[in-house]
Structure formats: structure tokens, C-alpha cells
Amino acid sequence: MISWNEAGHERRAAWRSAAGAPEPAHVELADDTTKADTAHRLAAEGTALLWTGDYHNARQLLRAMDRRCPRPRPGSGFHRQRQAQSQRARILGMLLVPYTGEHEIALRRAPDVREACAEVYGPADGAAVGPLRELLGVIGAHEWRAKGVEVPALGERIHPHYGVFSPVRGEYVDLVAQARLPDAEVAFDVGTGTGVLAAVLARRGVRRVIATDLDPAALECARDNMERLGLSGRVLVEQADLFPAGRAPLVVCNPPWIPATPMSPLDHAVYDPDSRMLRGFLNGLRDHLSPGGEAWLILSDLAEHLELRSRQELLDWFEETGLEVAGQLQTSPRHGRAAKSDDPLHRARAAEVTSLWRLTLTR
């Protein structure tokens, strides 16, 4: 619960944050007369602002506050960029909006967000207050979920859910679509996310795919996509920490590629503390890869360009876990940030290469 003073009376409401943001200790009211400089200063000092004015004016104020957040200069380094991201997220998360008990925004000219909120927060259960920035993400996710993301390798759309990484970076999907497919009746897709790689494998002829994930949102998303694609009978989605039971002649994994701590649910698709998932995948292959089978590791080398992990370190992990490289496919990223010279990590992004490592057991 959070509380604030309104017309001399204490008001309280439930705190709402799907991203797990902590509830603010100090809350003041803000409206259409609140200046951006004042709002940014209060937010930076730790005071949250509960908006009572026009919804569209709140969005404008959020953009103005964002412009006042410092940006790291190009070449300033990964850790400084992450620090700036964290500070910016904290400040912008201090502009709050009120919800009624029916998932409605209690502000003038507010859009109808009931369906979008129900997808993320579940059934409405009373009045609440939450960050406007998160609400905008919820609305955007609802639109992506409804519209879907075109995946050329499938010739169809994948529909991402809130908090599940969208396959907008299609180069890694193309690698799985292009790699020589071994004779595999069964394949495992470890850390399936939206289920896009499992769908590609099934469409390429793998008769049974077991797709795993630990995140309930990802499991729901993958099952939804398999049903939409008509693949529910061939792709089984299971909750598991990495591997399902048994062995398969093909085991595929696209783990998070940067060994750092995630700051939000969506970050878990990109940031892997201490390379936990990557190393867990490599360590588990001996017990889950069939003799003579192949493991496909799809991994960006951005961490190497950021000096967070070396190529030799990765090769050493292959050797330590009894794996050898049978082949490698590579592609360069096509996302827009790779070409933005003002991006703090431009040099690393411009040099980034995504690889599909074909790994086999050596002993």
C-alpha cells in the first residue's frame, strides 16, 4: 500500500508494479500546473508524483522529465551506461497514475486500458496506483500481442506477451532456419520465450519439440503461439529450469548474451548474471544430448566487445564440458542501434556478430 495527503486527509491505495518496482515512501499530488523541472527534481530526490490532471498532459510531462535525465556520452562504457539507465528508470518511475477497481484510469481523456491491464495484472481487485511509464509499456505490449511480429522464417506472426522478449531481432531466428538439420525426431528448445525457435524447428520437420522455460509468462506466451500456429500437437511446452527429462538428438538454446544483472522482467532475456544460463546449458548437455547428436547454441558476441566475457573463456567452457565445435554459422545484427553513432555502446554494437555454434560431445 502507498499513502498520500489529499485535502488534509490521508488516502491509501494498493501499489501496482508488474516489474517489481518498490513502492515510494513519499507521494505528493501533481496536476496540469506542475512544471517539468519541479517534477524531475522531486522525482530525483525520491518523491513520487501522483497525477490528478489530464492523462495526455501526464504523458507530455513524462517525456519532458525524460529529456532532463542525463545521457552517457558515446564510448562512456557499459557500466556507466547501465548506471544511467537505472537512474533514468528510477526517476521516470516516480510519475504515478490512479486506477479504479475496474482497471480504469481515473484521469480525464484516459484511454480504455482494461483489457491490457487484465492481461498483465489479472482480474481487477480494487483501486490501485502505479507508474505511468509501466502503464505505457503494458499498453504497448497489448498492441504487440494483438498485432504480432512478422517472422519471415515462419511466414507467420509470433505474438509476444508482456515481459517476454519479442523476436524483433530476427537474425538469430534465421540462423536456426538455415542451419543443416540433423536427423532429429525429437528436439529440445531450452529457454523458449515466445516459442519462436520451437515453431521454426517444428515447421522444418522435427516431429516433436519439447520447449522449456522457467517464467510463467513465457510459458503462457509460448503455448498461446503454438495454438495460434496450429503446432500444439507437435510442440510441448513445459516448465523447467533449463532441460526437460530425457535426451534428444538436437538441443537448441538462445540464452541471454550479456553477463550482468537484469533490472526488469524483460531484461532477463538479455542479461544473465555470471552467465548462469549459458554455463548451465553447457554443463547439462552431457546428460541430455543423445550420443551423436548436436547442440545448437545461438549467442551474440556483444559481451566480448564490452569486455565482459572473452572468446577464449567461452571456448574453455566448451572444452571443460566435453564439447567440440562441429560448425558455426554467423550473421550481423540488423537492429537500428547498431547504426546509431550516438549510442553509448555504438562501437560494440557495430562490431557485434551472432553465431550458431554446432556443438557435439567429445567423450
Overview of the molecule:
By secondary structure, the protein is α/β, with parallel strands linked by helices. It is built from twelve helices and 15 strands. α7 (196-203) links the parallel β9 (186-190) and β10. The longest helix is centred in the middle third of the chain and has 16 residues, at 132-147.
Task: Record the SSE blueprint.
Layout: E1 2-6, E2 9-15, E3 26-30, H1 36-44, E4 47-51, H2 55-67, H3 78-92, E5 95-99, H4 114-121, E6 128-131, H5 132-147, E7 149-151, E8 156-158, H6 171-178, E9 186-190, H7 196-203, E10 208-213, H8 216-228, E11 235-239, E12 248-253, H9 276-288, E13 289-300, H10 302-305, H11 311-320, E14 323-331, H12 346-351, E15 354-361
Parallel strand pairs: 2-6, 3-4, 4-5, 9-10, 9-12, 10-11, 12-13
Antiparallel strand pairs: 1-2, 5-6, 7-8, 13-15, 14-15
User: Looking at the structure, what is the overall shape?
Assistant: globular
The SS-based structural class is alpha/beta
Q: Any low-confidence stretches, pLDDT <50, length ≥5?
A: none
Report the radius of gyration as a whole number of Å: 23 Å
Find the count of extended strands (DSSP E, 2+ residues): 15
Total number of helices:
12
Largest sheet: spatial strand order: 11-10-9-12-13-15-14
List the keywords.
single chain; 363 residues; alpha/beta; 7-stranded mixed sheet; 6-stranded mixed sheet; 12 helices; 15 strands; globular
Describe the structure concisely for a colleague:
The protein is an alpha/beta fold and 363 residues long.
